[in-house]
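so the lab meeting is tmrw and i was supposed to have these ready like two days ago... anyway. pasting both below. for each one the top line is the aa sequence and the line under it is the structure tokens. i havent really looked at them closely yet so no promises
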Amino acid sequence: MSTVQKNAAILFADISGSTALYDKLGNQQALQLVATTLNILTHEMTAHQGVLIKTIGDEIMCAFPDAATAINAACAMHRAVEMQRPGGEQPVYIRIGLHYGEVIFEGSDVFGDTVNVAAHVTAITRARQILTTQALVETLPAPMRKHAHQVMRTEFRGKEEATDVYQVSWEREDTTSTRIGMRAFRKPTGARNELVLRYRQQVITLSETRKSIVLGRGDDCDLVIRDKLASRQHARIEDNFGKFLLTDHSVNGTFIRFSDNQVIHLSHQQIVLHGAGMVSLGLAFSEAPSEIIEFILQ
């Protein structure tokens, strides 16, 4: 696998308040809304020379060759979502965080400190905002820099020095709501952000210290499910930039029942786990499975 190091702008575009959408609309409708919104974001990314690195549940991560292209794409994403109204009467907002610097391209993925900083910036961004760093702003053409304003100086974990964070105006006429952002759709600060899984007498917690587990029938799995319908390595759950993503790799599929009793059947697909619920490997809940994995996000 070839490895290339070069400078790039890394952009995360996240659907704000997606957990509230699932609670309000139900899983099926919310999943469709998320998919429609991500398609809008991906279309704008492609139109601005971006490369999709990965989709993380309700968020895309992409790379751009330079800062100006990335900022133009970010503005276009906000405008497209606002114009196309993918939720109809249900408001849908996005938030975008960016950083520019050296990254490691390995196959179809990217790694490095630039990716981590971009993710941290996104985590403090509110709905309808674009936040970025001084490192990115300094590489913009002069006419574009006037649309960027420093809004805070903050410390990120693992960084010795504080980082200057800038907001980029994307509306034709900047408004107070854009400058301030929408507090209701900001990620809560101080949240533990842990996923607790319980299967029989076993309890496993995913967090900063343990990022992923594999579920399945094989003895090498983290949670071994002794059921003939479970594949040897049936599914994987991982903490991906603060979202707990369940990905099905099985023959018979994975069934998730959330606390509102809505059931999602995954077949080589993925979903962000939210709230609380149960997981069944290979057997629908209508068949009364005996091997159940419980989960709760806290």
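ok protien two:
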Amino acid sequence: MKINIIKEESDHLEIEFETKDFTIPDLIASQLRKSHDVEFAGVSKDHPDIGKPVLIIRTGKKKAKDALLKALDELDDTIGALKKSIPKK
């Protein structure tokens, strides 16, 4: 999945996803909101026919990019555990 970094500051990150599907950005934002280091995490949603989702992250003391990487690691662990729990034939 391709992304474009729109804005990158220590405590503010905006990432545009090269897709019209909001599933992954929404999942990441949801995971980010679980962190006490994240002040805001959400997805800007323009009209589905013309816009692309933009993930917006604002943090306090922690770097926004570090919060994003931590959330992605946590999602990877969760999805890996789910994958292992599915019975094999």
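from a quick look at the 2nd one: The CA atoms of residues 12 and 50 lie 25 Å apart. The helical segments are 23-32, 64-85. will dig more after coffe
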